[in-house]
Structure formats: C-alpha cells, structure tokens
Amino acid sequence: MIREIAIRLNGEVRRAAVAPNETLLDVLRGKFGVKTPKEGCGRGDCGACTVLLDGKAVRSCLILAIEVDGQSVVTLEGVGKDKPTALQKAFVKNNVFQCGFCAPGMILSSAALLAENPQPTEHEVREALAGNLCRCTGYEPIVATVLEVAKKSAKKKPAARRARS
Amino acid sequence: MSIAHEFDYAKPARLKEALALLARPAPRAAAALAGGSVPLAGGTDLVAWLRDGAVRPGRLVDVKGLAELRGIRLQGGKLWIGAAVPFAEIIESPLVKKHAPVLVESSGMVASVGVRNRATIGGNVCSAVPCCDSGPTLLVHEATVHVATPRGTKRIPMKKWFLGPRRTALAKGGIVLGFSLPLARHAAAFAKLKRYRGEDLAQASVAVRVDAKGAWRVAYGSVAPTPIRGPKVERLLKGVKKPDAALLKKAAALAEAEVAPITDIRSSDVYRRLMVGVMLKRAVKLAAARLAGRGPDYGINVMEEDAQ
After folding, report:
1. Residues A9-19: pLDDT tens digits?
2. ipTM for the whole complex
3. Interface contact B47, partner A, CB < 8 A
4. Which residue from A152, B45, B174, B241 puts its CA 20 to 30 A from B150's CA?
5. Distance to chain A for B262, nearest Cα, Å
C-alpha cells in the first residue's frame, strides 16, 4: 500500500509516495534528500533525528511518514536559511560542537525551547536538551551558549517572558 | 528501510470507523505477514516495537485524531484526560495542575521533551511496561479507564487494568478513550529513580497520595510485573497526616517487603528493593508537607540531590 503524502518541509510543499512502514526519518533522508536529521539509536533516546513537527521538537525515527501528511516539518536545513540565526552564530563562535553528529538535534531542540520560553533557567535548558545526547562535549558549552543567547536577546528587547501557565 | 515488515495504515475520522477497522481483519497481503489491527497513538513505543519486530500488525489504526480521545476537562464531577493527550499537554494543563498535580510531576519525568511532545498518556498505559510512569500516578488517583468497544463503552478501574508486562484488560478491538479521576482535596508526590539525570526509564518509582482525612494511597512502578498498589503501607499510614521518623522507618520496611523486583539491565533486585524504602520515605514526607501547605511545588523529583 503506497500513498502520496504532502508535507510543508522547511516552508515548501513537498510530495512523496510512501509506504506505511517508512519512518519520517527514512523519507526525509531517502526521498527528500534532507540529511541533517541522523539516525543514532533508532528508538527515541538520542535525539539525533530531532525535527520540528508543527513547531514542536519530535523524534522523526519514531514517527511514520504517513502520519504527518498535511503537517509542517522543519529540519536544520530550514533554520537560518538566509543567514545563520543568533543561536547558530553563538554555537559557532563558542565552538560548542566537536564531531557535530548531535548538532542538528541540539540546534532544533534549543530553537524550539527559545521560541516557547525565551528566557529559560539553566534547569529548563538542561531539561529541554535532556533527550539530545552528545558524546563529545559534556554538554557544558552547549548549555552555556543557549543561556548566553537567551540573555543577549533579553537585553536587545526586554519582552516579557511568556507566562507559563 | 528501518521497519522490515509491511502493514496497512488507516486514519479514520470517526470513532465508529476506528472500531470497525479494528474489528475487521487486515487486508490480504499484509494479513499474510502478520496479525490484526493495532491502534496507533503517539507511536513512541509502538514504532520502536515495529522496528524491533516485536509487534507485527497487519494494519495500524491511527486514533490520535479522534475527538473522543482529545482534551482535558471537568466532566461529571471528575477530571477527564483524553487518551490521546500527549504528556507535554498534561504538563501545561491548568486543570491537571489544580486537580491532579502529581500527574504534572510524573509526566514531566517521562523520557524527554521530544518524546513528551508525541507520547500520549493512553499509549503509556496501553504499552503497560512495568516501568510506565503514568501507572503509579493513575493508581493512587483510583482513575477509571474508559474503553470504547463495538458493543458500547466499558469502564475499568485502574487497579484491574494491568494484567502483566505489556498485558492489559483492553480486549482486542477496544480503544481507550481516556481516564476519569475523582476530585478531592489531597496532596501527592511522585519519585522516580534513574541511573542518571535527564531521560531514563525508571529503575523504580513510587507515587503517594494523602487526602484531608489522612487516608494514604501508595503505588510502585518497576518493582513488579506491573505497577502495583501498596496496601500494607497504606494501612500503616492510615489517619496520619504528619508521620514521624519512627513511622516512616516502619513504612519503608513494609514497602521493601511488599514489592517484588527483578534484576535486569537497569538495576539489581536488591538495589530496587532497598531504594523503594528510601523513595517511599521521601515521597511520604513530601506529600505530608504539601498537605500541610508547605513543601515545594509539583514538578520535582525527590531522588535528585538538589530537590532535597
């Protein structure tokens, strides 16, 4: 059983014929040629396959492509398309990654956090990134940089922190 | 391809269609490969099991879009939580925060943000692994599971829900609609033991709940084939709103005696048994403090150093 699905991938409508047993990760990499989501553990533990589904960080290895027909998916390719975001620039400036395998997931999870909660506490940053494993850095530079970016954005425009109900 | 076997997929718009699909055998080609129809919600367990080949359905019936399975509301004097509500939504719900705040505490410890955005409470309870984080919490709330079947809706008390590892009282072809939780003034706490900070499955978990009269309910996870209640500790603590150190020690000893842990990859049976005593003490102290209007807000884990 093959079905055609249409998703808004990084702002652009893309179509593909998929079988029900193809994961979103399979289809992103194999059919759409989007290679930043990686397969690490294949069971939702490592976060290397993180994508944003309708704005929320999810595990593309645990989602069937057929499930997301009509939804919006953002991968790292869709973040900072024209020029790097403040978060990406800060990650580069602070040289936070070594091998980079976790980087797409880390950037997307951090971006989703900052979009929802622009001024997170350190605990909130660690919580948001707890599902993204990095075997190089010990996490310290990553967490520090997310906090640094949050602090800078607060100075720029002291927007009220979104009330967390 | 990461999932080896083939299956059909259907996303019915109505509950009736979903029930009909679950009752009907899967189409020929797929049925030749595997069994019948299986409901799909968040998929964070199911898709992993499909990849392993542990579950080989002929058809997946995607139920997460069904209106009957969505939403958190007060209904008939109870708190209703739809089966397809993801944990991320439970954590943010003002109604849950008000009426069953320990569910915020336990849901916040389920895996990681990326999983909680997708994984549903109904799926967690249907997966029925011994370490399921919602089990102990729903048990101490004496929640009722509402199940749709082709012959009408059934209500199953939580304590009759879990039959064994990955086995529940859900009859084939049924769909869990959601959970109703009785409302009462109470305080509660959830403690989860993990190998490290961040995401991990529970090595052991303890949920406790105490009402205004000092009636306690206790439940454990990961220390028996299913999440279980702790009747001996409940009887010991009955009527005590401010347990002293001597009583807590007795309660911990009883807790260690009323669980039946095994040794597996995450922990030894002895470690689990001993930690259940420690966890029970901390959880009871925390719930008692909360009942007295003191104690930290919900959303902490007493098993992490900075929570002490």
Report:
1. 999 999 999 99
2. 0.93
3. yes
4. B45
5. 23
At B137, list the tokens: 């919490």
Rounded Cα distance, B26 and B59, in Å = 6
**Whole-prediction pTM value?**
0.94
Q: Any CB–CB contact under 8 A between A143 and chain B? A: no
User: pLDDT digits over B173-215, tens only?
Assistant: 999 999 999 999 999 999 999 998 888 999 999 999 999 999 9
Instruction: Kindly report, residue by residue over A38-66, the tens digit of the pLDDT.
Output: 999 999 999 999 999 999 999 999 999 99
Multiple choice CATH, B67-182, 3.30.465.10, 3.40.50.150, 3.40.50.300, 3.40.50.2300:
3.30.465.10
Could you tell me where the beta strands, DSSP code E, fall in chain B?
A: 8-10, 35-40, 57-62, 72-75, 78-82, 144-149, 152-157, 162-164, 167-168, 175-182, 186-193, 204-211, 216-221, 228-229
Asked if B227 contacts B132 with a C-beta cutoff of 8 angstroms, the reply is yes
Asked if the B191-302 domain carries CATH number 3.30.390.50, the reply is yes
Q: Which of B3, B5, B114 sits opposite A58 (nearest CB)?
A: B114
Residues 6+ apart with CB under 8 A from B77: B182, B183
- Å from B200 to nearest chain A CA? 9
For the ranges B54-58, B82-86, B92-96, the lowest mean pLDDT is seen at: B54-58
pLDDT score, position B2 = 87
Q: Which of B105, B199, B306 to mutate to test the interface with A (most CBs of A within 10 A)?
A: B199
Interface list for A 94-133 with B (CB within 8 A)? 109, 112-113, 126-128, 130-132
- Which one of A21, A59, A113 has the shortest CB-CB distance to B5? A21
Is pLDDT of A165 > 50? Answer: no
Task: Give A86-156's CATH code, choosing from 3.30.450.20, 1.10.150.120, 2.40.110.10, 3.40.50.720.
Answer: 1.10.150.120
Q: What's the CA dihedral at A92, A96, A99, A105 to 10 degrees?
A: -90
